[in-house]
Amino acid sequence: NLGEYDAYLRSAYFENLELAKVSKLNEELEELNQIVASSSSTMEEKIEALEMMAHKNKANKEEATLKQAIKEAGYNNAYVEYEDKTVNILVSKKDATKTDAVTIIKLAYQKLGNSYVPSVSFKA
Questions:
Q1: What's the pLDDT at 124?
Q2: Burial of 3 per CB tally in 10 Å (0-12, 13-18, 19+)
Q3: How far does Cα 97 stand from its chain's mean position?
Q4: Per-residue pLDDT at 111
């Protein structure tokens, strides 16, 4: 069935995005952990690294929370990632409407507050 195959490909696309993000996050956390563990790092460097680790973990949890809320709103596949002061949101929806975008933007503000500007795009 062509529809099932398309759905599988969309799901795989979003899973690959998520895996790449998690892999990048793990690499960044490992680098920061090495700074913390290094005897050659200054106390300031260690504190900064710990703060960055906490920030990255918090951001990852917030992204996951928003992604789950989008899925619960009826969108099967979603990808959420912070970039500077923007939260990029990619959602799988054929024939997406302005109403879909508004729904997702409202979810972003409900879950994240006004700290980030939502940028919503759709993938058919």
A1: 79
A2: exposed
A3: 22
A4: 93
DSSP letters spanning 6-74: HHHHHHHHHHHHHHHHHHHHHHHHHHHHHHHH-TTS-HHHHHHHHHHHHHHHHHHHHHHHHHHHHHHTT
Question: Quick one: pLDDT at residue 28?
Answer: 97
DSSP string, 95-106: T--HHHHHHHHH
Residues 6 or more apart in contact with residue 42 via CB below 8 angstroms: none
Say how far apart CA 35 and CA 67 lie, in whole Å: 31
> Look-up: residue for tokens 């989008």?
70
Q: Residue 76 gets which letter from DSSP?
A: S
| Mean pLDDT, the chain cut into blocks of 10 residues (124 residues total) | 77 94 97 97 97 96 96 95 94 93 96 92 90
Q: What is the pTM of this model?
A: 0.88
Contact 93, 75 (CB under 8 A): yes
Question: How far is 102 from 51, CA to CA, in rounded Å?
Answer: 34
